[in-house]
Amino acid sequence: MEPQLHEIVDLERIDAFIFTLAVIAPFLGLLIGGLWGRKHGAVKAGLVRGLVLGHLGPVVLLLWRMYRHMVRYDPETGYVGLHKMSVLLTNVVLFTLVGLLLGLAYGKLLASGRRRGINEAEKCPENQESQC
After folding, report:
1. How far is CA 41 from CA 36, 117, 122, 132, in A?
2. Are strands 73-74 and 79-80 parallel, antiparallel or unpaired?
3. Mean pLDDT of 48-59
4. How far, CA to CA in Å, does 44 sit from each of 14, 27, 110, 116?
5. Is 125's pLDDT higher than 70?
6. What is the 3-state secondary structure (H, E, C) of 31-85?
7. Which of 30, 57, 70, 95 could be stapled to 22 by a disulfide with Cβ–Cβ 3.0 to 4.6 Å?
8. What pLDDT is recorded for position 57?
């Protein structure tokens, strides 16, 4: 009798984990962002940053589902996406573009927060910070 071979990683469990992460991440981002904002005296900015970072969960879910669809194996048609160079190049371009766009967007968010912080600091003289 041949030994039964099992995969170490079950795709259904990975799918469930990523889906759970996508649902929880925005709320977790809000919570952590709010706590960070309260600690640094910028609750609104913390909430916005936390929400933006929290929405990376749904982005990861979307990218995961697209990846799974592109590299799928279909025994009925004989399609094997993992062996196609076009699938590899599509994944490289897609993930690079998404990473670039998310990096630029978050960089603008951070830069706008810094500009607002500088503008607010200029409005308050150093000896009257407690009143601002």
Report:
1. 8, 11, 16, 12
2. antiparallel
3. 92
4. 34, 15, 13, 12
5. no
6. HHHHHHHHHHCCHHHHHHHHHHHHCHHHHHHHHHHHHHHHCCEECCCCEEHHHCH
7. 57
8. 95
